[in-house]
Amino acid sequence: MKSSSTVASFPKPEVGPEMKGADIVVEALVREGVDTIFAYPGGASMELHQALTRTTKIRTILPRHEQGGVFAAEAYARATGRPGVCMATSGPGATNLVTGIADAYMDSIPLIAITGQVFQKFIGKAAFQETDFYGMTLPVVKHSYLVLNVADLPRIIKEAFVVATSGRPGPVVIDIPKDVQQAKAQPVWPAAVELRASKQPRHATDEQLKTVLGLIAKAKQPVLYVGGGIISSGAHPELLEFAERTNIPVATTLMGVGCFPETHRLSLKWFGMHGTVYGNWAVHHSDLLITLGARFDDRITGEVTKFAPHATIVHLDIDASEHNKNKVVQYPIVSDVKFALGRLNELAAANKFQAPDCRAWHDKISEWKRDYPLAWEPNKHITAQEAVRTLYELTQGDAIIVTGVGQHQMWAAQFYNYDKPRTYISSLGLGAMGFGYPAAIGAKVACPHKQVVDIDGDGSFLMNVQELATAKIEKIAAKALVLNNQHLGMVVQWEDRFYGSVRGHTILGDPNNIGSPDNLGGIYPDYVKIAEGFGVKARRVVKREELREAMQEMLDHDGPYLLDVIVPYTEHVLPMIPGGKTVADMIIK
User: Fold this and answer.
1) Using CA atoms, how far apart are residues 93 and 450, in angstroms rounded to an integer?
2) Active-site entry in 463, 490, 551, 586
3) What is the SS3 string spanning 133-182?
4) Gap between the Cα atoms of 71 and 86, Å rounded
5) Which of 14, 18, 128, 346 is labelled catalytic?
6) Hey, do 12-192 and 206-371 end up sharing a CATH topology, with the first three levels equal?
7) Residue-wise pLDDT tens for the chain (589 aa)?
8) Are 453 and 440 in contact (CB under 8 A)?
């Protein structure tokens, strides 16, 4: 018989009183610290909604479409770092979540998606509102559960939160048949769950990190290329210290926007297809590229074989599957990036590390910044760029900016400076239109004391316009700044550049009466009337001299607000590296 001292000590589980499966789900969420769920009811999830009415610890927000709910839950997670939670019924309710789940998967966002499912006896028999949601989401989740035993619910839900947040974050689906929701059991609440050792985050060794410091010491033109992993891991303080200690310029991805202060002297802002000229050139001409929490996606690299062609590349990432997937590198290191940066700082201090003399490199970058700033051509009309810059000035950079997908998304990143993480929230890997306003709702619920503004395009905004009702009824003061050009602007830009300006169904209004700042009669639909129909205050602005005052009115309004800003459709997002091309092909003007 083993002595008690040789037996592993684990916290003892807690046994609760008998309750229905649906109540077990709600209590499990409470125990995980969930304070908000975005949930749309239906036949297969009614038991869960009834259980939610029996608690005062979770705020249930009713979106007006399941996609709006999952985008809101995603933004809640993006703004806080805690898992967002959404819920839908079986069949079409569940399938309406798929785009948001895929979006969370692409951008590594912790998300818990709970779905009702038909009775177990009907699974696989094409029952009413049945889909194999477990099967259909397998390619876009970190993990999935189909719960077949009510007794498994406490463990599964606790485990789901651990899976969603550990290592590289991601979405988890929990599919619960209705009979499991109705069944009764005495819940056994696990105090903790432990992932397999193979799933535990790994840490870089001192030898690996000393090698990195040795490479830096010899570099003449180093650059830090940093992505969303810095934000996910909370490593922005360590990054700032490391950049200042080594005096290396920092270029972020769009996912990494805000992880390094964009007003800092070492900032190159963000680079890639529509990133800064100086950021792209710095990466292209670097002799040492240290990549932290990023994945070499195509919008960053362009033609990957010609990306950073002169650089020795270090790629530090928590997910080993990203190493050499898109770009073969010389030094792949698997590690939690917060640990690695912290340890790099410690090793540099202990060994009295001296930053290399890169004055010539910094002088060259300063010249590029001077000669190729982000700018736009003056226009007699309000331009989208001017609108974003005005918002930055009025908020003094202290707002959470959420975007839809399109030209406005790029301008929001170009002309608003982000000095803090989790203040630029956008669908970036998937590029899902319709993300903006429901995401603004989620971010505002997560951060009620912050100013939250959705910078959106008219095409993207219209895809989830129904969420204005959610904002009104739930008293969520999320603002919408709609840059209305009556076109699918980014696709129009590509038509202008590469398709002879032939319009392939990219005009959102009447093609025979195209709305514009010079033709207000052709503007359709009327977003002011739409917003007022939902009980949301709104205003249209056409004249430049009215923009600042109208925008201040939007910011000061105590409640949701839509500001419809009419802008020309002829503007292009520049600079631009055409898809699959290189920095040498960059269009600057």
Assistant:
1) 31
2) 490
3) HHHHCHHHCCEEEECCCHHHHHHHHHHHHHHHHCCCCCEEEEEEEHHHHH
4) 9
5) 128
6) yes
7) 344 444 445 678 899 999 999 999 999 999 999 999 999 999 999 999 999 999 999 999 999 999 999 999 999 999 999 999 999 999 999 999 999 999 999 999 999 999 999 999 999 999 999 999 999 999 999 999 999 999 999 999 999 999 999 999 999 999 999 999 999 999 999 999 888 766 666 899 999 999 999 999 999 999 999 999 999 999 999 999 999 999 999 999 999 999 999 999 999 999 999 999 999 999 999 999 999 999 999 999 999 999 999 999 999 999 999 999 999 999 999 999 999 999 999 999 999 999 999 999 999 999 999 999 999 998 899 999 999 999 999 999 999 999 999 999 999 999 999 999 999 999 999 999 999 999 999 999 999 999 999 999 999 999 999 999 999 999 999 999 999 999 999 999 999 999 999 999 999 999 999 999 999 999 999 999 999 999 999 999 999 999 999 999 999 999 999 999 999 999 999 999 999 999 999 999 8
8) yes
SS (H, E, C) 499-564: CCCCCCCCECCCCCCCCECCEHHHCCCCHHHHHHHCCCEEEEECCHHHHHHHHHHHHHCCCCEEEE
Structure tokens at 510: 């009447």
Q: Given the DSSP bridges, would you call strands 250-252 and 267-270 parallel, antiparallel or unpaired?
A: parallel
Q: Does domain 384-566 have CATH number 3.40.50.970?
A: yes
Fold that domain 12-192 belongs to in CATH: Rossmann fold (3.40.50)
Structure tokens at 95: 């399938």
Which token pair is 368? Answer: 């590029």
**5: number of Cβ within 10 Å:** 6
Catalytic residue of the set 142, 158, 178, 444:
178
109 — phi, psi (to 5°)? -110, 130
Q: Write out the two tokens for 536.
A: 């949301």
CA distance 563 to 539: 5
Q: In what order do the strands lie in the sheet with 143-146?
A: 59-61, 36-39, 84-88, 111-117, 171-177, 143-146
129 in catalytic set = yes
d(CA 364, CA 360): 6
For 472-510, b/e burial (b = at least 16 CB within 10 A) is bebebbbbbbbbbbbbbbbbbbbbeeeeeeeeeebbbbe
Please name the residues in contact with 315: beta carbons below 8 A apart, sequence gap of 6 or more.
Answer: 291, 296, 322, 323, 327, 329, 331, 332, 333
* Domain at 206-371, CATH class: alpha beta
* H-type alpha helices, 42-144: 46-52, 66-80, 92-95, 98-107, 133-136
Please state the pTM of the whole predicted model.
Answer: 0.96
Which region, left, alpha or beta, applies to residue 269 given φ > 0 means left and ψ of -120 to 50 means alpha?
Answer: left
Q: Which of 66, 262, 386, 571 is catalytic?
A: 66
User: Catalytic: 208?
Assistant: no
Nearest CA among 397, 394, 390, 424 for reference residue 256: 424
Structure tokens at 348: 């540099």
Q: What does the domain layout of the chain look like in residue ranges?
A: 12-192, 206-371, 384-566
Q: 87 an active-site residue?
A: no
525: preceding bond cis by omega (within 30 degrees)? yes
> Which of the following is catalytic: 19, 129, 306, 553?
129
